Amino acid sequence: MRSAFFSIIAFAMVASTGVPRVALAQSESVRGRVTDDSGRVVVAAEVHITRSTDRLVQVTRTDSAGRYRVDFDPGSGDYLVFAVAEGFRGVRRR
User: Of 68, 70, 69, 63, nearest to 44 (Cα)?
Assistant: First the structure.
């Protein structure tokens, strides 16, 4: 079984939601790209993202460019990302 190389980018994006004179909610996006050892994208990889503060898990799949994105509302900063695809070993990144 091959091991996969995962390039994961996580950062906070503040999204304004609501109407004027209402406190704005903050959401955080975790996004990245899944590639193999040769740099080729991994399509339809299953990506599990766990928020450390409350153990909330969201699951998504990579698109045709190997990209994924998950929004957490409200956001909180520390995440564990686990990605796996057929023919590859799963990989975890914080």
Answer: 63
